[in-house]
Design brief:
The chain has a single domain (about 5-105), classed as Alpha-Beta Plaits (2-Layer Sandwich), CATH 3.30.70. It is built from 3 helices and 4 strands. It has a 4-stranded antiparallel β-sheet. Helix 1 (about 15-25) runs antiparallel to helix 2 (about 65-75). About 25% of the residues lie in helices and about 35% in strands. With about 120 residues, the chain is α+β, with helices and mostly antiparallel strands. It has helices at about 15-25, 65-75, 95-105; strands at about 5-10, 35-45, 50-65, 85-90.
């Protein structure tokens, strides 16, 4: 039985971009956790040639409802012309971890665009 959560894979070319995307996804509550895996070698087609690059793989744990928000955030903050942002459903996991994941992500899409609650203040 599938859960309401996903893992998203994003590759980046350097540690600075990895930190920018990781911290931004966390700050916006688009992810509960981002694991950074350095030392990935990626080979791919680009402009009719096979290229090979050293990259960092970001493994993002998020809500399925936030897919489009994650994709948009990556597009706005990634230097690649076509950044990798692919999702896989989390079919199962420890209930405690899934509860933690849900408690630490936004509940709906476009959460950053919602007006602040009265108790939070705002203009």
């Amino acid at each position: 039985m599938a859960t309401q959560y996903d893992i998203c894979f994003i590759t980046v070319g350097d540690a600075e971009t990895a930190e920018k995307i990781s911290s931004g996804l966390l700050r916006e509550r688009l992810a509960a956790c981002v694991s950074s895996v350095p030392g990935v070698s990626s080979s791919y087609w680009w402009k009719d040639r096979i290229e090979t690059s050293a990259e960092i793989l970001l493994v993002v744990k998020t809500r399925r409802a936030l897919r489009e928000d994650v994709i948009q955030f990556v597009k706005e903050n990634h230097p690649y012309t076509v950044p990798e942002t692919v999702f896989a459903e989390i079919d199962a996991g420890s209930q405690e971890y899934l509860d933690w994941l849900g408690a630490n992500t936004a509940f709906s899409t476009n959460a950053a665009k919602e007006p602040p609650r009265p108790e939070e203040g705002g203009r």
